[in-house]
Amino acid sequence: MTVFALLRVTPITDDDATEDVAAAIDALEEYDVEYETTPLATTLEAEDAEELFAACGAAHQAVDGSEVQTLVQVDDRREKSMTASDKVDAVESELGRDARSDGD
Fold first, then answer.
1. For the region Disordered, what residue ranges are annotated (predicted)?
2. Is the distance from CB of 28 to CB of 82 less than 8 angstroms?
């Protein structure tokens, strides 16, 4: 996979946004993308940019609200095939440890 994105869909509301965020994530299931959700955003990877942008658009449209903000940051690796886990593995190799705290 060669196209990565950081996706954050944010409904602007005073209410709990959990249901809206879940709807955005669920919309990704209709697309040929791999994704992982974290507390702040979702990382996506796809074979091509068109599929990735379609998935991001669907996530945005899945949120039912009067105002929705969506942030998409894209890394399009056009000459090298690499997965998101490959990118993390490279950083961990350089660190010589996992790229996370040990919880102490």
1. 75-104
2. no
Total domains present in the chain:
1
Each residue's pLDDT tens digit, 43-81: 999 999 999 999 999 999 999 989 999 999 999 988 878
Beta bridge partners of 66: none
Token readout for 9 is: 């869909």
Instruction: State pLDDT tens for residues 12-47.
Output: 999 999 999 999 999 999 999 999 999 999 999 999
Establish if 53 belongs to a structural domain. yes
The domain that holds 28 is classified in CATH as 3.30.70.930
Q: Which residue(s) pair with 10 in the sheet? A: 69
**Predicted model pTM:** 0.85
> Which residue's structure tokens are 């490279």?
90
Beta carbons of 56 and 7 less than 8 angstroms apart = yes
